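Changelog-linked ticket: thiamine diphosphate example.
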Amino acid sequence: MRHAPTPIGTSHFTSATEKEAPRMDSQTEMDSQPETQTPQYAPQPENHAPRLLDQINSPTDVKRLSSEQLKTLAQEIRVYLTQTVAKTGGHLAPSLGVVELTLALHKVYDLPKDKLIWDVGHQGYVHKILTGRREQLPTIRQHGGLSGFLRIDESPFDLFGAGHASTSISAAMGFAKARDFRGSKHSVLALIGDGALTGGMALEGLNNAADDGTDITIVLNDNEMSIAENVGALATYLAKLRMEPLYQAGENTAKRMIAGMPVGSNLIKKAAKAAKHTATHFATPAHKGLLFEEMGFTYIGPIDGHDLSNLVNVFQHVKRLKGPVLVHVLTVKGKGIPYAEANSRTYHGLGKFSPDDGKTEAKTAGVSFTDAFVETLNDLAETDDKIVGITAAMPDGTGLNKFAKLHPERFFDVGIAEQHAVVFAAGLAAEGFKPVAAIYSTFLQRAYDPIIHDVALQHLPVRFFLDRGGLVGDDGGTHHGVFDLAYLRCVPNLVLMAPKDTDEMRAMTRFALSYDAGPIAVRYPRGGQDSLTPSGVCPVELGRAEVLRRGADTALVALGAGVKIALDAADILARQGIEATVINARFCKPLDAETILSAARRCGSVVTVEDGVASGGFGSAVLELLSEQGLAVPTSVIGLPDHFIEHGPVPVLRDLAGLTAEDMARRALALLPSRPAPSNGKAAVLPEKLTAGVR
Ligand SMILES: Cc1ncc(C[n+]2csc(CCOP(=O)(O)OP(=O)(O)O)c2C)c(N)n1
């Protein structure tokens, strides 16, 4: 709801308290539909009255605002944010939760001189609005538009990019030490959510920061949620802190805190420790913040993250503190938009929706790869109690929420802890269980060493299900699952499969669960693919490909989502009188050497296709096979080029990357030594589009 804007600079902050502590209601059900709200709660449409928001072009404009104006601006931001994300899709609830916190940080600190490092960056929309990107917000996550995360190359105010969780404290430590080396004096802050704090790297960062003692402020944005409910002992501990009375920053408290702070040498630090303890414990009851304080942080909190005046006061004091400080801020995910508050799990990140009632667009019909996986898993788990489901904070995205409903005792959400998830799975496998580690392709990158060191080296039958393999679209470069084929293919003992459609996904899921000889991974894309072989799925056998089409002119060898591209390319070529063999490789490792080599010999040229990086991926495996056999047939590898791919719709990105059926047909044609006499006797007339721009 809009407030009448007041002129800039008419009042200043006091330490006045505003309202009660925010408390999350009991968590909403996964997959539940957004609740219908009465219209008065909906963000009001923009009217033509002048908005404060329109005057905000940089953080300097925020600094000029009075307390009341900032509150008005917060409201305007919520409306603008919601109406914009309703059209673009994106991370709504995380950004709604940090409106006041972002305003307070920009009010108090001087970015980019002061360094504010955001964890994940999915909650950075308000920061974008305040740092000169207000008008560009409607381009967010659109191809060529603003990123949905923070990127170092998007704005000088985005000091460190992210997309994956739990990196902010480590990066901030780097910024802090660089400042110390230079003898500079600016502030360094990491803003991290309670979900991201469950990640091992965040804990490693805390461990280092507390011990090092340099000036660094960790702002803990505690909304009790990861994407789903936050999990783990640390979450339980934070919940206890949350029960305490809210911290208010008054001048006296601040003076006491600062007087007690250790500065200078280690000796002085030690001498000052007792004073610091007294000072901070005066500010906060003795049992609060103990864990962080024992580590060496000055703990301040919990603070109402929606009380703007108090936030500003607290950070003004914190700015003067020395050493490692942890400010515990309580926020409500989705704050201010009731449907998002009531169901922050749905509104964490979503596609387009109605800003009035939050209703999302109907799901496109058809079965997704994720559905095919979890439905099969649930079938198998009914009779096999050795199956255990593991997710690293992605129960909904991986589909394991449906497994969890049926088998809560065999389901584990370990938090944003991919490394732990994989070694945990390895332990279970060593004891004869059948762990299913369902992890997005991009996030499994975090667990690369455990895959090699703990799983593969020990031949342990962990079943990896890599969702969102390939280009994911709007999330962009941090999230495309394009490295997995390359990074898994080189791991000894590991079997690597990719299904062409959802029927094959079911068959591969069954196969993976029956395979006990060592680790096995199935990698599959976002969305679905209806059956490409309506007559049925041929049984999955280890290292066996399937031949989908026979032709003598060229061999198109494809993996996973590449199979549809190859089939379509074969159709294009056939229209030109060129007959292609199409092989669905099924296994990236072990390759079906026999089938691929015989097709290569018969056809005299090979084109491979995969929706992953070309360097070291499936096509490279085929090239290695041909070279091992001394088979010198012209071969072309189609995969993603050696640069990071932007965000945008998958078809657009594929087109730009040369990953389409037409590209494949062009590549096949380019390999034909001279225009062959086509096997079907038709003349090969090549349309402009096919001959132009052979890559
Ligand atoms: C390594 C990694 N694993 C999983 C994710 C997916 N992910 C994005 S945001 C998020 C939850 C973060 O929770 P929190 O830090 O509390 O922020 P909030 O959204 O609650 O503000 C998760 C699991 C990720 N970005 N990176």
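Closing comment: Example verified and attached. The longest helix spans residues 67-88. The radius of gyration is 28 Å.
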